[in-house]
Write a structure and sequence with these properties.
Blueprint (H helix, E strand, L loop, with lengths): L1 E4 L4 E4 L7 E6 L10 H19 L3 E6 L6 H10 L3 H18 L15 H13 L3 E4 L2 E4 L15 H7 L14 E6 L14 E3 L1 H13 L3 E7 L3 H16 L4 E7 L2 E3 L2 E2 L10 H18 L7 E3 L1 H20 L11 H15 L4 H20 L3 H17 L14 H17 L3 H13 L2 E6 L2 E6 L3
Parallel strand pairs: 3-4, 3-9, 9-10, 11-13
Antiparallel strand pairs: 1-2, 5-6, 6-7, 7-8, 11-12, 14-15
Helix pairs in contact: 1-8, 2-3, 4-6, 4-7, 6-7, 8-9, 8-13, 9-11, 10-11, 10-12, 11-12, 13-14
The structure holds zinc ion (ZN).
Amino acid sequence: MRLYNTLSRTVEEFTTRDEGRVGMYVCGPTVQNVPHFGHARAAVVPDVLRRWLTHSGYEIFYVRNITDVEDKIIERAAQEQRVPAAVAETYTRIYEEQMARLGVLPPDVAPRATGHIIEMIGLIERLVEVGAAYEAGGDVFFSVRKFDTYGRLSGRNVDDLRAGARIEPTERKRDPLDFVLWKAAKPGEPSWASPWGRGRPGWHIECSAMAAKYLGTAFDIHAGGLDLIFPHHENEIAQSEAASGRRFARYWLHNGMVTLDEEKMSKSVGNVIGLGEALDRFGANVLRLFLLSAHYRSPVDFSEARLAEARAGFDRWAALLRATHGLPLPAAEPAVAAAARARFTEAMDDDLATPAAQAALFDLAREGNRALEQGDKEAAAGISATLRELTGLLGYTFDGGSHADDLVGPLVEELLRLRLEARERRDFATADAIRGRLGEIGVIVEDSPSGARWHLGGA
Ligand SMILES: [Zn+2]
């Protein structure tokens, strides 16, 4: 298999440190709010990689952390007038529930930062010991000039970075590029005892410490969103490698952003689609198909039209599987199915080219329908069996199962189509009754110039 490595900026042949085993670390969420659709992509991309590596015969150990102590959580707690730990608990639970609804396999370990303060302190002590970090007034900073290859991952030049940086009057660091490993406690904030007095870890050191604890100081794959390359991943490498003297992760994989009207979806911009709302409206399969219809490194633009296409695509697969349900299977896989399997495999092995892999599956579904039209039930059933297996490898599910709520979206859309028809023939009583009944069962319908929109109430 070949994977694009951000570190080398090339597509490389994938090899593992230990034969047949893959250690993989993915930066998880900072649990300060409900997940938005960008979080779905950052979870689905490594989920598909993990499923594909498992299918390819590797034994994966998959770690995805929870950042449960961070400035934004503390700010949120102040707004909600709750303690930061309670805020983190609420949003951790919501994140995990929504990941399960999305059909993302749970990690082998989901370490929480607050459960690993001892490891973080140990790592910072080590960095101080080797001269890569220094204490200043209860804060501890990483000394960027002590790490020769700083900037390699992000392709940034340290001199250029330094020219654009400055030290705020309140900061105690020696060099504008130095970043914080340990923050001295401020009144009212969560803090832990350390050799430098009470304080809390910086964000970057959290991932270095948790990755080392569960995967060792050198492992295979580190993944995350493109927006984490600098400074987060650059700093993770500097801390980890300065402490261990070993190469940290061998492959760095970064997924592209989700945009809304061509702008990055982010809390600070305010253009976010909630993941819960998206799951209510479209269901896990349609969201997954939408996400995988773009290459993982490309941006993907959230639009109603693209999601409608994804729904139509998923319905084509589901319709063939329904139509062939219970039909006798042929003795051997039909040739068209074997050919689709080969195309699918080739695409997935080529840096996880899911658009091409899915194109092979759409072509295969077409062949299945053709076989049905020609009355060749065995061939149709054989094609269908291959389709079910390959879509399953990408994480799609049919027949309810864990994605029972996939039915909600299509059913509501169908009722809204009936409502629209009623309105078009000026039967407003029926149209209003449909809306009223939906409201009674918790489906809130809002009319807008571009048509009716809906969401599940109370969420
Ligand atoms: Zn991280």
